[in-house]
């Protein structure tokens, strides 16, 4: 069986800081895994390495059996392999001035020619797929609005719709709810779990706070100082055990309500057209 994601001996250093150190991680198709850890523990670096947005110093990453990077280099097939991964970020990554539909159609760009995509010549089937994806995430009423007119939660749901149009088999999300109010955060997490349950989409989701990880995931991987310090069932990750793992910084992961106050205001990504966004995401 090939794993949805298979990480072997991945290491990435910035100067003397080992952001990710000799990590091994295997995620089976259909699994739902939360990645937790205090700020600076290496979550974003591991996510960027997993999706080939960043090359490692050493080690290998495979997605559904195919290497996306190996020995510090992206493989020849990296772009194609990356299209199987739906990426979700904290800051939604939509093009603000463009319609929600156009943003979601970017997910189809891997299949249409870049030229056609640039000029917005999507076929009827793509447009139908975009509408259906917007229905699935519950924001079809906003299809024609500019992305910037949507609330944060709706924008994040549009980003999820984009991964559906992309037909991603694994969604890798870096703190997807960190900029959202608790109600929108739950909605986004409900939606991701539903896609996992009903469509078998594999999930790897980094979360700053452990309460959401416990509520939505069976398996939790906890990082500290670039290493995995726990990989197991959510039920084992009690407050006492977290304190054992993280010492004083466990508070950052446990205290309720803290992450809302801690978030910086939303800074939009500056992108001129969907092809440009697709390049950034692909
Ligand atoms: N581009 C970068 N340049 C230098 N140091 C970085 C860079 N990205 C991350 N780091 C460092 O790597 C470590 C892990 O960071 P990161 O992966 O962002 O952690 P997390 O997402 O868990 O907060 C931190 O010490 C951070 O300062
Ligand atoms: Mg991070």
Question: What's this entry about, in short?
Answer:
The protein contains 12 helices and 11 strands.
Secondary structure blueprint with pairings:
Layout: E1 5-14, E2 17-27, E3 32-36, H1 43-50, E4 58-63, E5 66-70, E6 73-74, H2 78-82, E7 85-88, H3 100-105, H4 114-118, H5 124-136, H6 152-165, E8 170-174, H7 182-199, E9 202-207, H8 210-216, E10 219-224, E11 227-233, H9 239-246, H10 250-254, H11 258-262, H12 274-281
Parallel strand pairs: 3-9, 3-10, 7-8, 8-9
Antiparallel strand pairs: 1-2, 1-4, 4-5, 5-6, 10-11
Helix pairs in contact: 5-6, 6-7
The chain binds adenosine-5'-diphosphate (ADP) and magnesium ion (MG).
Adenosine-5'-diphosphate is lined by residues 14, 17, 19, 37, 39-45.
Q: In the CATH classification, which architecture applies?
A: 3-Layer(aba) Sandwich
- Helical fraction equals 25-40%
Q: Specify the CATH homologous superfamily.
A: P-loop containing nucleotide triphosphate hydrolases
CATH fold-type name: Rossmann fold
Approximate shape: globular
Quickly count the helices.
12
As for the number of domains, it is 1
**Alpha carbon gyration radius:** 18 Å
Summarize the biggest pleated sheet.
6 strands, mixed
What small ligands are held by the chains?
adenosine-5'-diphosphate, magnesium ion
Oligomer: single chain
CA-to-CA gap between the ends? 26 Å
Order of neighbouring strands in the sheet with most strands = 7-8-9-3-10-11
Counting DSSP E segments of at least 2 residues, the number of strands comes to: 11
Output the helix-strand order.
EEEHEEEHEHHHHEHEHEEHHHH
Structural class: alpha/beta
Overall average pLDDT:
87
Low-confidence stretches: 257-274
